[in-house]
Protein 1
Amino acid sequence: MVVTLKLLEPYDLRTLGHNSAPYLPRFRHLDGRRVALEAPIGDPVRSALTALGHVIVDERTVAFGGAQAIIHLPRGYAGGSDPRKDGLAAGY
């Protein structure tokens, strides 16, 4: 939980919409205290995680997942998709 909170600290999730959220930098817990962080996650977060005993792994060696999001609107649906992966958001 501490890792997730530290990674999300720079972002105000209340202001992100379905189209913006998939653009956030990604992280992946590997095993034990090893985590991979995408490059946009800055030095303050990396330093804080390292101080907590986590090991930051080179992100270029790790596969990250993608994200798609769909939101129900009063007159239909809207979708957003992670531009770093193939795929799309679709609903009916």
Protein 2
Amino acid sequence: MVILARDGETVADPITVLEGVAEQLGKRPWVQSVKFLSSASVPVVKAECGEAMGYVKLDVTIQDAKHKGLKCVEIVKEFMKQYPQLEPLMLVFKYILRIIELNDPYKVRSQTERK
């Protein structure tokens, strides 16, 4: 989930906003865990939901100049329109990345920094 500011505006203090989001998510009974990665290049709140929500993982960020996630989604969707055969390939690729634990850029980055 990406939090967007109103047209042409920016969020004055994204860290404070995300701290509030993390705090509120932590109060929800359907949330098993919440982490706030404030020092990431794009700060993110990561939440894991329980059985009631189907064990969904949720990332919350704030759109700004450094945030490229929405643009990447647009590009992938456009490629998939042009080349429909990419969809099953992308799904398999995402599945493999999840199995080998390379699907989370925040986790992967912290692992490579430790080496």
